């Protein structure tokens, strides 16, 4: 097999279609070569080798690729006219990971690999800059020590051993900045660094470039299984089997002096989606300097620079003198970069995220990939590219990641509340949104408060998990392409970066702004859209969902086969969902209707009475409430089907459990407290989820079913009299045998006939069932003969198929996920190979006797994109989900059908 793919000088063995094999980064490096973009030569070791490495170990992997790697290194040497470890003309390379999708911060890069005591002389000679050579060398030893030799401190409070050595030397020398180190200082640092390596690892620092290279390659493969990478995969549902590729590439230097630079750019705005080329760069800097947030990066375009200055409150004079744009400092290279970014976007037909380096006046591209973006940017870019004629409608839809739409549906700051809010500081609008929460200073403490704001000088890949938990992120340092900014945009998390006025003391856990202290736990608010930081809590309001969002929704409806309904129990939820595009209600749970005010009393009276007459009397009190509720909901969903489910939970959930309330109830009903207590203990069950609930209640107490059916039919007739088109669909829960269904359907239908007669008018209505017990799916042909429709209750169906209690699974599911026994929580993502088979069987058996049988789903899975796709595949007519997931389900339904 071929395990190594080379690229360079306009040629490449790989291309963009080979991401699974050579990773996203490798595929794009190859592709850039093929379309004539200048890329330093190099090679990619395939993801298959990662699998060999993890399964068979280091030696097996090395022996599989040794020869190919040697040949590939020779090619780099050839193309760059250098030699590994040479004292005159050494070949230096970078080593980077590259999975098939980008995983930010999975493994830090190793730069300058190949340096040793001889090679450093070569670099000094070649560059004519001895200090530069030694600075590169000390950076290399440090990076290699941290990343490959595992010297990076475990705990966030511990300082990096190499940083400590540098601090000591600064103190000895009475200097403050890294840039003040002399060449001799740097030489001393290399010696001390190597001593530290020997002391900590018990082995001397490897001087042989080949040993260095194999060490770095192994470290990349190891990083695939590190905690951060595992967490990131879990967050995104990426399987461990993918593995990572390794990219080895000739070094180019952005830190060779004033004619060198390095930067990061986006072909469009990753926060808002605007079609504006933008990015940041630093003159005389190396790769990570721009994203690490240690120096304030400068804007690439003049326009961007001016915008930045305004936000950062920097005068035009200072901007021009200290933070000029690349457009101003290196106009020719800026022009070249402009052309390349255009070429790349037109080639990939998507927003690109680029890394480039200028070495002594020559521009090199180090990376291109489709850029991470916020939900808002995702929508705008897809719609803009469609309207610009770059992509077609289907492609535009495929650019929409349904779950990311969630970000757009959430509240923004209330405009009037903003007027009176106190601004504490201003940073960069790194990732839009509104966040209010309590300050925490460490990522692993983000869950300390329900709403936390992570406040950091800068963030690093270790902080990923905490960033995800926090409501928002505030950093004192770093630009629009800092780690915090990029990661936050990817997560759709509100982030303000580089708020220079914010001073943070991790030791005392205090943030100071303009002399005022803010402690851990204090409330602040962030506006990620403007970069403002506010004191305390700021009120929020609903976002505007017209414009591009509306266009995406319309496009979805054009391509979707299934319709989307909502699960709603109140007229208000129904309205919200209808505004989000719901076409009907797939599940109206009626139980909540029994809880408010006087209703719960009547309900309890019904439960406690031991005669049919007593129950009917109590139910008669409930009837008007129910009817009124249904009128509200039917009206809100006028013209669409509304599936009302009959009472489902066990009665025990409705009785009082506190002595005082029990006493009150006893007095009201004129019975003894003991009688009340004994009835309540009668209702107690060992396993209520498999107990007296669902249609079993209606079978024991037919008067409940009759009352609910009457309330539904009367409500619909009342509306009809007012000219409102109500379309009730009455649904029986927890059916396992056709006889259960028939029993309930008979009560419903005869009640409806009675009401029609009383009112002298009729309406159309349906009587159907939930399919949520495995036996119902297995006997769906029998049930379909009697039922007008099916709705899969995949919450209970999952519970009963897997035998996992919905209420107790939280105790062991995390272990199952951790150990890989389950890939996903089956209560969130439909278990397609198990529960899904029952769903498919239910549909097929049902339609085998009733070809046009209407079938939907109303379990939680109805709003989860991969489950929605499955539902489309098994020919459901609709999915039903909570109001806020309706837009997500609409797009998912369209994507499923494209
Ligand atoms: C279900 O079981 O999937 C369902 C929708 O009903 P509930 O969640 O109310 O049990
Ligand atoms: Mg259920």
From TrEMBL:
Assigned EC number: 2.7.9.1
Residue ranges of domain Pyruvate phosphate dikinase AMP/ATP-binding in the record: 20-388
Active site, per annotation: 483 (tele-phosphohistidine intermediate), 858 (proton donor)
Keywords: ATP-binding, Kinase, Magnesium, Metal-binding, Nucleotide-binding, Pyruvate, Transferase
Domain PEP-utilising enzyme C-terminal: 549-894
Transmembrane helix as UniProt keyword: no
Pfam family name, one: PPDK_N
InterPro entries linked to this entry: ATP_grasp_subdomain_1, PEP-util_enz_mobile_dom, PEP_util_AS, PEP_util_C, PEP_util_CS, Phosphohistidine_dom_sf, PPDK_AMP/ATP-bd, Pyruvate_phosphate_dikinase
First-tier enzyme category under EC: transferase
Binding annotation for Mg(2+): 772, 796
Cofactor: Mg(2+)
Binding site for substrate: 589, 645, 772, 793-796
NCBIfam families: pyru_phos_dikin
Family (UniProt): Belongs to the PEP-utilizing enzyme family.
Name this protein carries in UniProt: Pyruvate, phosphate dikinase
Organism: Sunxiuqinia dokdonensis
